Every structure is written in structure tokens, then in C-alpha cells.
């Protein structure tokens, strides 16, 4: 019986132990990585689909519940000593031991499609000027933010991508973006919010006593936008036309317009262009220093690239962003940040799940 007692001693202390705490670190790391990679792949795939005239589809991961069960069983059978009929009689005994265990990992993941009112609110509504100023104040390059999120500033037009055409930006737009970036890089521009009649009023503020180069850039900005060159503070509003020379009117894009503009920069297989499956990649705009580089570079290849930041298959090709292309990686990550940042309103309640606990 000593082997039986030994096995009971080993199994007994673990009978009431919990496997949950040991899984927390591993599960949070694994699920975070999986959700992040799937989000990147979904965003890139939707950009490629828009490029081909396909409809984008977004699925949010609403809830992840990891359920674990570990069942143990143990049995022992023993016989008392008896004496055999041999001469001399010999004692005999027998016993049997059986142990078993069953481990079950059954995660429950819920998905919420972006459709109906949520789609209209998140994808079709113009980005609020407050969101644009907030990301600029947070340090995102103002020239990239304007190229990405704004259609016009005081009537100075950005590049516009339509169904049948691509309209280049006004030449002054790229000069404006360049000069605003010079002022931003100096740290001499900021945002102030005033509370007036229970409503937040946004103001773009330039510091006094600027360095000569920064002051020249600020003066050029005022000239391009038709602002009072002596003023240091300007009200920022949504719209196409300012009310006076102390107001900056931003005609902002929706998230869908942002994605349409970026998708036009994807290089596509020449065979697909020749077969009229997709339009050719439009040429670059001309800026003050020459051709304007695309905000993002998304290429294609016949096989899955080995060194990709993100890659997705579509229509027999792999579309990807190179992991060594830091500018494209930063811009792609900013898109996903902006996508989350501008969503307003209350999300639909996630379903309530009841997960049985088994030990």
C-alpha cells in the first residue's frame, strides 16, 4: 500500500489548485499580439480592396473570454494478503492504481461588424477640427496630418481623389504644409481651447518674438491663407470659407475619404491595369521642391515578402509594407490611431456571456 499512499500524497495537494493565474501573463501577451496583427492586416486589406473598387468591411473584436477546465481522476484497488496452496505456503497480494486528467481550453471571441449607424458615424462623418488640432498638438507632423485629413484650408485645396479622376492639390497647399511644419518644429505654435456658451472654441496660437526664419514661415502662412499678418491667434472652425481674416476654416475629410486617398497610392500589377481590373497609379503632384512623395508606399509581389511589416494576399498577389520603410510604417500606424481616435458616440453593448467554471 505504500505506493498508493505516495501517489495520493502527490495528487492531493494539487486537487484544489487553480490554473487561472498562471495563464494571465501568457494570454494577455498572446491575445494582444494576435489582435494587433489582425487589425493591421484588416486595415491593409481594406485599403487594397478600395483600390480595386471593392467594398471595405471592418470587424471589431468585441470580447475575448478564455475558459479553462482541468479535470482530474484517481482510483486505487487493493487486495488483502492471502496464502497460496504451495508448500510451503507463500503470501500473495495485488493492487491496482488508475489516474487520469483532462485539460480543456475553449476561448470565446465575439466580433462586431461596423455597419449601419456605426459605419456612418465612424467612416462617413467629417473628422472634427478638434481631433486634427489634438494630434498636431501631440506632435504628429502637421504637414502629413494636413495632407491626410484636410480637403482645404481657407479655400486652398488639397489633392482630391474621385471615382474617375485625381485632382492635384493647389501649389500653395504644399507650401502651406511646409511652412506650418517649420513653425511646428520650432515649438512656437500651440492650441488653446476657450469655453464660450458651453461650447469649446479652438484657437491656433503663434508665440511672439519668433526667430527670423520661423517668423518668415509664419508670415507666408498668413499670406497664403489671407490672414491678418499682425495677429498671433486665430479661431479654427469647420468649413470651406473663413468669416474674417482672423479665422482658419478647415474642410476636413471623413475616414473613408482618407482611406480612398491613401489607396490611390498603392502600386498595382501592370497585368491588372491592362485587363481593366484597376486604374493605373496616378502620378505625383508637384510641390515647391519638385514631385511630392506619396504618404505611404504599399507594393505588391507574387510571393509573400519575407521582410514585411504587414502583408495580405489579394487576387493572386501579396500587398505589403516593407518593414524597413519607417515613414510608411509610421503613417500606417497613425491611420489606425486616427481611426480609433475620431470615433464618437456609444458603441453597441457587447453580449453578456456566462462561462461555466470547471475544476
Q: What is this entry, summarized?
A:
This protein is α+β, with helices and mostly antiparallel strands and 359 residues long. Helices cover 36% and strands 27% of the residues. The model is unreliable at 4-11 (pLDDT under 50).
Question: How would you explain this protein's 3D organization?
Answer:
The protein is an alpha+beta fold and 359 residues long. The chain contains ten helices and 19 strands. The strands form seven sheets. Strands 8-7-14-13-12-11 form a six-stranded mixed sheet. Strands 17-19-18 form a three-stranded antiparallel sheet. Helix 5 runs antiparallel to helix 6. The chain is elongated. 20% of the residues are buried. Residues 4-11 have low confidence and may be disordered.
Top keywords for this entry?
single chain, alpha+beta, 3-stranded antiparallel sheet, 10 helices
Layout of strands and helices, then pairs:
Elements (H helix, E strand, L loop, with lengths): L1 H10 L8 H32 L7 E7 L2 E11 L3 E2 L7 E2 L2 E11 L2 E6 L2 H9 L4 H9 L4 H8 E4 L2 E2 L2 E2 L4 E2 L3 H16 L2 E8 L2 E8 L5 H14 L7 E6 L8 E6 L2 H9 L6 H5 L11 E2 L2 E2 L7 E3 L6 E7 L2 E6 L3 H16 L18
Parallel strand pairs: 13-14
Antiparallel strand pairs: 1-6, 2-5, 3-4, 7-8, 7-14, 9-10, 11-12, 12-13, 15-16, 17-19, 18-19
